[in-house]
């Protein structure tokens, strides 16, 4: 198969456990660019969490942010956006606070990141990982008419299952998916990494069978099940490795490079 596009998740996939790209991964992206094969970041992060990666490794590429709620081209221009309203964000936050869930909430809109407690260790850890700074505030700080990319719940891992179940029961009209043992992403209905790559492949005239994707967690599953050549990272959950048979090395062992080398896209 002549593969024509490569999609990659970020945390646990593109970045290693120290939240850095490996040299062979950087070189793989360079080789793809030389062959005019688009490399597209597909992440639950917002743009502000991707720009530091571009600066450190001196490359740019299109990016799917908030798991598909916002898509930017290589120049950073918006080519697709599908967030929910300020009112919906307010309803989610009010429910979280009313139920006294053991979690802290985060609101993302384009480059804005609002949290209810900047001193929460989970927020501080996220700031260090994505190299971006949050702003303490409330839903009311959002301008009217804003499009909210997502609300993120950073949970006590002991209670993530229960919180996810309660949110899905309360908001069946929204897309709710877990991206780690402590993170629950809440997006507009119909938002998924799968729909985002379908949108881009159609826009750029690329058949889904000609696409490649790398991922490591539950919110990557729809993407991996959609592309022609999916790779699940070895560090992914065993449940996903049963569904996605093509397992590459982990994110500390050049999994992306060896996956691309296996299918002949890099040397």
Could you walk me through the main structural features you see in this protein, from its secondary elements to its overall organization?
- The protein has 267 residues and is α/β, with parallel strands linked by helices.
- It is 32% helix and 22% strand.
- The chain has helices at residues 23-34, 51-57, 86-99, 121-130, 160-170, 193-203, 221-226, 238-243, 255-262; strands spanning 5-8, 39-42, 63-65, 70-72, 78-81, 103-109, 112-115, 135-136, 150-155, 175-178, 183-187, 211-215, 229-233, 247-248.
- The protein has an 8-stranded mixed sheet.
- The relative contact order is 0.18.
Percent helix, as a range, is: 25-40%
Provide the low-confidence segments as ranges.
Answer: none
- State the major sheet: 8 strands, mixed
Order of helices and strands: EHEHEEEHEEHEEHEEHEHEHEH
For the terminal residues, how far apart are their CA atoms? 17 Å
Strand content: 15-25%
Number of helices, where a helix is a run of at least 4 consecutive DSSP H or I residues: 9
Structural class: alpha/beta
Mean pLDDT: 96
Strand order of the largest sheet: 5-4-3-2-1-12-13-14
Count of individual beta strands: 14
Q: Given the C-alpha coordinates, what overall shape results?
A: globular
- How much is the radius of gyration in Å? 18 Å
